[in-house]
Amino acid sequence: MSTYTTGELAKLGGVSVRTIQYYDQKGVLNPTTISDGGRRLYTDKELKTLRLILLLKSMGLSLATIRDLLSEENANEILTMLLAEQERHLKQTQQVTENQLRTVKQVQNSLSDLALVSQKDLGGIENMMASQPKMRRLHGTLLFWGLIIDVIEVLAIGIWIMTGNWVPTAIGLPIVIVIAGWLVRLYYREVRYICPNCHTIFQPKKKPTFSFQGIRLRRES
Question: What is the pLDDT of residue 128?
Fold first, then answer.
């Protein structure tokens, strides 16, 4: 069985002699024997204990807690749980670091492209990306009410042709006009355009024309 002096143990553990002496004073790491000349001698068991102490300290445990832990009868079970938790934490940290490294690599690879894009361009792209969900909702609304308009028109005109009763048409067409007018206002309130040259964002101002066969909107030239 190998034995180590205080200096040798400190060197193997990567700490100072003063640290070994301090741990000895605190009752955390005691020597196996003391030679006739008063030299404190340690074995491989104490070397393993030293490495465990350093690991537990890196996890934030105080020396007093470590001393109490090592003196417990079920110390191995407690240490197993602590080390399993530390392993889980380190794996999470490793995953975060790997994700960050991938992001850094992607940015590095795209720097040449980004250099060609102005800050104004980036702002416009960001605004466009943020507005995509809103535009999808707007398109869904326009499509839904466009179908309603079509149904009202077809029913009203069909009844008129088949029965000669024009009352449903007289009632249906004003409803269609009201719905279409509301959709046009909604469209012009929500839609924004980006100039491809100056990247200025503006709202359309020209009034649209539309047919009552759905809500096929057309911009005036």
Answer: 52
| HEC per residue, 76-117 | HHHHHHHHHHHHHHHHHHHHHHHHHHHHHHHHHHHHHHHCCC
- List the structure tokens of 87: 């392993």
**Cα separation, 167 vs 159, whole angstroms:** 9
Residues 186 and 217 sit within 8 Å (Cβ to Cβ): no
Cβ neighbours of 120 (radius 10 Å): 11
Q: Confidence band (pLDDT; 50, 70, 90) for 183? A: confident
What the block records as the tokens of 193 is: 């355009």
Q: Quickly state the pLDDT bin for 212 (edges 50, 70, 90).
A: very low
Count of CB atoms within 10 A of residue 42's CB?
Answer: 26
Bridge partners (DSSP) of residue 41 are 33
pTM: 0.42
What lies within 8 Å, CB to CB, of 87 at 6+ separation is none
